[in-house]
Amino acid sequence: MALYFASLNSGSNGNCYYVGNDTDAVLVDVGISCRETEKRLKQLQLDIKKIKAVFVSHEHTDHIKGVSTFSNKYNLPVFITPKTAQKGPYLIKHLTKTFTTNEPVQLGSLTVTGFQKQHDANDPHSFVISCKGTRVGVFTDIGNVCSNVIHYFRQCHAVFLESNYDEVMLENGHYPIHLKNRIRGGNGHLSNKQALELFLNHRPDFLTHIMLSHLSKENNHPDLALAAFLPHAGDVHVSVAPRYTVSAVYCVTGSGNTPLTQQVKPVQMDLFSF
Length: 274
Fold this sequence. Notes:
Layout: E1 3-9, E2 16-20, E3 25-28, H1 34-43, E4 51-55, H2 61-64, H3 67-74, E5 78-79, H4 82-87, E6 96-97, E7 105-107, E8 110-116, E9 125-131, E10 134-139, H5 147-153, E11 158-162, H6 167-172, H7 177-184, H8 192-202, E12 209-213, H9 222-229, E13 237-240, E14 249-253, E15 260-264
Parallel strand pairs: 3-4, 4-5, 5-6, 10-11, 11-12, 12-13
Antiparallel strand pairs: 1-2, 1-14, 2-3, 7-8, 8-9, 9-10, 14-15
């Protein structure tokens, strides 16, 4: 069965990622307002009624800003670990659901599996969303390429992959040294180079889409991230998740090692700032 995926916003100003099929969908993080989330789903002609849950990766504001309002308005369960919930969004108790690392959660026709990663948060997780053998990963806010990231990356037909900073731009930029060290110190974010190394060393034969995500406004540029990947991409479609608006909607269908893919063009949209 086909899975559709899109970024509603990606970056330190807010993160929200959609994965679903013809009947069911989930959001990973709602780091933009409820109003903007609604607008952007409508722009992409994605039906809110299909969304079955929100999964929270960690408690940083750019990932949880709109979680409470959105989930309360649409009566959606929010899957969050107890440690993340301690410092996370205020949630209505009956909507809060716990998930356990590496244990699948079934939501209609979708299966969502969370796994632990390295990041400077209370209990950070990334996710793989699957349906009948097709798998889409949401891998952002990753400090280093640990064994968990490698294990789940190797399973995916499509991935939102963090490519946060260019090493030269970060080194020569205006950030104070303590912030530079936080970003590149193993519990911060992946550079273009680190993301590319993951792709080159561990991509499965059936991977067809990479959406480079969570790019830094100050220490990266979409052209730099794409320039790192495109010479090595082959038949893998590489795109960048926009910082201030939606991406295209993509479709991937996994069938053994020969997935069929297509790109769905977005409708005309406006740019929003935060």
